[in-house]
Specification:
Vacuolar protein sorting-associated protein 41; 5 helices; single chain; Vps41/Vps8; mainly alpha; 58% helix
Length: 131
């Protein structure tokens, strides 16, 4: 049932599976063992009826927390790599643009309805040049 619900990627099916699993401590425990990577485990933990004795609940919750920390660490690492790649590609694009367009002409609008003034910006020099 878990493999089917994972394959469907449907929150409503997860809700039905959780409802079904709460009928027995054994199925609740089995679902706790594998729910962490797919949906928020709190959806199941908060709905466990008072007085239900789930075997190894503390160990299962520790495993869920450890998995969560691992996933968080992986996401942070991936985000750092993506940021680094973006900076590298932006620098590469900027360098290529500077070589192709040594100067860029910018029209700065004049004040009070006057005609704008054209300025030459030296991309290769990184500063504005004369008119």
């Amino acid at each position: 049932a878990i493999d089917f619900v994972v394959g469907q990627r449907d929150d409503e099916l997860w809700g039905r599976l959780i409802d079904w699993a709460l009928g027995s401590p054994d199925t609740t425990g089995a679902l706790l063992d594998c729910i962490g990577g797919y949906v928020d485990p709190l959806l199941l933990v908060r709905r466990i009826p008072r007085g239900m004795r789930v075997e190894r609940l503390r160990d299962r919750l520790r495993a869920i927390i450890a998995d969560y920390r691992t996933q968080t660490s992986l996401r942070e690492g991936c985000n750092a790599i993506l940021r680094s790649d973006c900076r590298h590609l932006l620098a590469k694009l900027y360098d290529g643009t500077r070589r192709v367009l040594p100067y860029v002409y910018v029209n700065r609008p004049g004040g009070g309805g006057e005609a704008g003034q054209w300025s030459r910006w030296g991309a290769a020099l990184g500063r504005s040049g004369g008119g």
